[in-house]
Specification:
Order of helices and strands: HHHH
Protein name: Cytochrome c oxidase subunit IV
Shape: flat
Keywords: Cell membrane, Membrane, Transmembrane, Transmembrane helix
Radius of gyration: 23 Å
Main location: membrane
Distance between the termini: 70 Å
Number of domains: 2
Pfam families: COX4_pro
Subcellular location: Cell membrane
Structural class: mainly alpha
Strand content: under 5%
């Protein structure tokens, strides 16, 4: 009985990680390294050097590059790319609801800070 369980566990383990080879791990590592180097180049050379100014455009580029790195980390190193479609969708939908909740709380907090001052001794700046 114990050997049967061991055989099933080994088979499941091998099938679960079938897409991750050493070559793919290194390829994803170098993708992440290149994206990080691009972020540092933008921050230290372009923005700090005065070639481009800080603003919404630079922030959008940073956010896009960070989301791209997050995709590679979650997909390959956390093995989500090799899961079933239903599991991927359930994790994605929960993640989107959490982001939505954070946005709602930030919006509500900003409103309350500007319109509600319960302590007259500590006014809002």
């Amino acid at each position: 009985m114990a050997s049967q369980h061991h055989d099933q566990a080994v088979g499941h383990e091998e099938g679960h990680h079938e897409g991750m080879t050493k070559g793919r791990i290194w390829r994803v590592f170098f993708y992440l390294l290149a994206i990080t180097a691009l972020e540092f180049f933008i921050a230290l050379v372009l923005v700090h050097g005065g070639v481009i100014s800080k603003g919404l455009g630079v922030n959008i580029v940073y956010i896009a590059l960070t989301l791209l790195k997050a995709y590679y980390i979650v997909a390959y190193f956390m093995h989500l790319k090799f899961e079933t479609f239903g599991f991927i969708m359930s994790v994605t939908i929960v993640f989107l609801f959490i982001i939505y909740l954070i946005a709602l709380m930030l919006t509500e907090g900003t409103y309350l800070k500007g319109h509600f001052s319960p302590f007259p001794f500590w006014p809002n700046p």
